Amino acid sequence: MKLSILHQYKNNLILNRFAKVFSVDVLVKASGFILLPVYLKLMTQQEYGLYSYLISIISTFSVFLNFGLYIAQSKLYQDLEQKEKGKLLFTIHVTLFLALFPLLLVMYGFKLDYVLLNFLFKNPINYPLYRFPILVAVVTSVYSFMLSNYFLTSERIRYIQRFNFFRLILVNGVVLLILFFFKGDAVGIRLKYNYLIELGITGVFFYFYIKAMSRSFDRQLAFKSLKLGLPIMASALCDIVINFGDKFFLEKFVGFKELSIYYLAFSGASVIPFFFSTLQNVWLPIFLKEKNLSENLRKTKKMIKQVSILLLLLCIGILVFVKVVLWINLIDNQKYSAVLRLLPIMLLSQAVSALTHLLINYVVYFEQTYFTSLISVCFGCISLVCNLLFIRTYGMYGAAFSLLGINMLQFGVYYILLKWNVRKRLVV
Fold first, then answer.
1. Is the pLDDT of residue 20 over 70?
2. What is the rounded distance in angstroms from the CA atom of residue 186 to the CA atom of residue 180?
3. Crossing angle for the helix pair 255-269 and 293-327, to the nearest 10 degrees
4. What phi and psi, each to the nearest 5 degrees, are found at residue 11?
């Protein structure tokens, strides 16, 4: 019996791919959390709060600035014949280039980023020092994500493993050495070298991406890609309010020190989306390939159960890790002890959000990505009101509970939408 179970796991396609990618990918994404005790020794509490806030801005806008084309890449790559796939990749990247770079040129050419800065920051920062690294970071994040998505969509697991391995070793290794040996603005140093190194690694691996392209632009594919992608982009714009609004109002109402405590809890809880994004990247191509809706639902239900168990174990592991690190004072217990009260709320919130994405996959499956825009607008407004009401009064705890409530409501809405779609398409 035991051998039979082991044999099933050994031959499970999703688990095999996940294990291969997870072994390096999650280490890359979670390295910032695993190495937090080291980084916090090399950065002041104020610097850590500012750096984390800047990374949130970069990550948030990078998701928006890929124009949702990663969804088109994942979906259409599975639907097209082999000879058409190279044309799709070329078309998507020409479309991305023509959309992204004029926008960035206008933003930086007319110094509109300074207008955005004044809106996003209440506390003064040395923005001219960070301006160019932020631009590099945004461009790198967009193309690095598209590259990773391609490797997983095309099932080139070895490439994604190597790509992530070099990011893990080179980025953290070089940045930590520079922070240790050179004194100065730790925020500027970490931003600059982190993304310059990642840009170089992305450039090297992009060769394999370009090699897979057929240099032929297809206008119909471009329109189809934008039709799938732009609602996701609009959704991402609304999600900025949900996923970034808490940090925005905390920066306005409590400052960088309390924000650093919130970010420490957020970093711990972020291991869950890091973990899940790897699983999602492996699962999505397999999910989209299964055209039989009944079988697809059966597999997704099984996946939700398995992911729920993994998330529970992961949450327990994160709580124990943070407790031990504070107890032995690897992270200053006096400065960051409040994180233990905040972390359970944020872990639950991220777990619910992860499970919600398994339901959101059906919006792509049914080609109803416009629903994500409508839902995101509604929840963006609710989130804005909650943050205004609770963060001013309850600070970081108000932010954490607001995010948890929003994520639970979103899960419920996408579950109802899935049930509605299933009733329409399956005769009971």
1. no
2. 10
3. 130
4. -100, 10
Please check whether residue 62 is in contact with residue 141, taking contact to mean a CB–CB distance below 8 angstroms.
yes
Q: Which of 69, 129, 141 shows the shortest CA–CA distance to 104?
A: 141
Q: For residue 182, with 0-12 CB atoms within 10 Å meaning exposed, 13-18 middle and 19 or more buried, which class applies?
A: exposed
Q: H or E stretch including 20?
A: helix 13-34
Quick check: 271 and 314 in contact, CB under 8 A?
Answer: yes
Contact 359, 418 (CB under 8 A): yes
The length of the chain in residues reads 428
Residues 6+ apart with CB under 8 A from 307: 276, 279, 354, 355, 358
pLDDT on residue 24: 59
73 Cβ contact partners less than 8 Å away, ≥ 6 residues apart: 88, 89, 92, 146, 149, 150, 153, 225
| Sign of the C-alpha dihedral computed for residues 285, 287, 291 and 295 taken in this order | positive
Structure tokens at 355: 């499970």
Which tokens go with 268? 């711990």
User: What's the one-letter identity of residue 309?
Assistant: I
Per-residue buried b or exposed e for 121-142, using 16+ beta carbons within 10 Å of the residue's own CB: beeeeeeeebeebbbbbbbbbb
Helix (H, G, I), strand (E, B) or coil at 109: helix
Q: Could you tell me the pTM of the whole model?
A: 0.72
Burial 45-70 (b: 16+ CB within 10 A, else e): bbbbbbbbbbbbbbbbbbbbbbbbbb
Question: At 286, which amino acid appears?
Answer: I
Q: Which of 264, 244, 262 is nearest to 119 (CA)?
A: 244
Cβ neighbours for 148, distance < 8 A, ≥ 6 positions apart: 160, 163, 164, 281
Q: What is the DSSP string of 203-236?
A: HHHHHHHHHT--S---HHHHHHHHHHHHHHHHHH
- For residues 231 and 100, which has the higher predicted lDDT (pLDDT)? 100
Percent of the chain with pLDDT over 70: 91
φ/ψ of 110, rounded to 5, equals -100, 10
